[in-house]
Design a protein that fits this description.
The structure is a single chain. By secondary structure, the protein is an alpha+beta fold. The chain has 2 domains: 22-217, Transcription factor LuxR-like, autoinducer-binding domain (Beta-Lactamase), CATH 3.30.450.80; 232-296, Arc Repressor Mutant, subunit A (Orthogonal Bundle). The protein has 11 helices and 5 strands. A 5-stranded antiparallel β-sheet has the order 2-1-5-4-3, with helices on both faces. Helix 8 crosses helix 9 (258-272). It starts with 46 loop residues before the first helix and ends with a helix. 36% of the residues are buried. The model is unreliable at 1-39, 108-112, 219-226 and 292-299 (pLDDT under 50).
């Protein structure tokens, strides 16, 4: 996967109408009012920072549309968690069944959007696993960890997306599909204790804001990742498996080697989290992988 997120984003910043509610008019913070996060230590806001924090919370309650969330994240939220890329996930985190949305201050060409969303989803999957193992507390991933040669799946995912300094956190709702998770990428500086505490303070408001825009927008403007993320080639192979063909028959049909087919199938089993070909076919049928649209896509 190419690391292109460092210079691009999944969407052009939406244009807000002149009648947009509070978040559309959020003023940017001055350097003097930005939280002091250069040193490690507890979050001890100044009176100006407290005022801005209250404004951020009040503005979050006015969000009902995706563009309003974007403007809020790129406006007053930057005062406390200065970032360039924000990946949001909503759904059942423990079951890894969630939708992904990406916000960034950069621009991206249309032909790179599908690749980016797939990469963002994979990054969220790795991040959620780390977060759950870490006790569902905010986790910081300074860029220096990768530079120092630390071998870790999360660091690799961050590096692949070019996220630099990264922090992740989510909600602790374990009862169903109403959790949310956030990856703050390309932070202005390495996240420390203050940033993590601010993230905890703002998490309920991030959670309700993202769920409100998903509910009110009805998903019309939201890029949703499929329940099963198989490539076009993998779908072709699974069609052969579904039809009872052997690896040799599939390889002949697709013009690839039987070993390549075998490797694809092993990767598919891992992606689908199943143990055999029959279970893989059942999962693909249940999630409508074998649709006509998927079949027509070029490998």
């Amino acid at each position: 996967m190419t690391a292109f997120l460092a210079t691009v984003s999944p969407m052009n910043p939406p244009k807000s109408p002149s009648t947009a509610p509070g978040p559309a008019a959020v003023p940017s913070a001055s350097a003097a009012n930005a939280p002091r996060d250069l040193e490690d230590g507890a979050f001890a806001p100044t009176p100006q920072e407290l005022e801005r924090l209250l404004f951020a919370i009040e503005a979050s309650q006015q969000i009902n549309k995706r563009f309003q969330f974007f403007l809020w994240a790129q406006g007053v939220l930057q005062s406390f968690l200065p970032h360039q890329t924000l990946i949001c996930a909503t759904g059942n985190l423990d079951a890894e069944q969630f939708d992904v949305d990406v916000f960034s201050s950069d621009a991206i060409t249309e032909d790179r959007q599908p690749e980016l969303w797939q990469a963002a989803r994979e990054t969220v999957q790795v991040a959620v696993r780390h977060w759950i193992r870490g006790g569902r507390e905010p986790l910081a991933f300074p860029a220096e960890m990768r530079e120092n040669g630390v071998d870790d799946a999360m660091l690799h995912a961050i590096w692949e997306l070019g996220l630099g300094h990264t922090m992740v956190h989510g909600t602790r709702d374990l009862r169903g599909a109403n959790s949310s998770f956030f990856v703050f990428g390309r932070l202005a500086r390495a996240p420390r204790r203050r940033s993590q505490e601010v993230c905890e303070i703002l998490m309920p408001y991030l959670h309700f804001a993202v769920h409100r825009y998903v509910l009110h927008d009805g998903g019309a403007q939201r890029r949703r990742a499929p329940a099963v993320d198989l490539s076009s080639r993998e779908i072709q192979i699974m069609r052969g498996v579904r039809d009872g063909k052997t690896n040799m028959e599939i390889s002949t049909e697709l013009g690839i080697s039987p070993l390549t087919v075998k490797n694809h199938i092993q990767r598919i089993l891992r992606k689908l989290q199943v143990s055999n070909r029959a279970q893989a076919v059942a999962r693909c049928l249940a999630t409508h992988v074998f649709s006509a649209d998927d079949f027509d896509r070029a490998p």
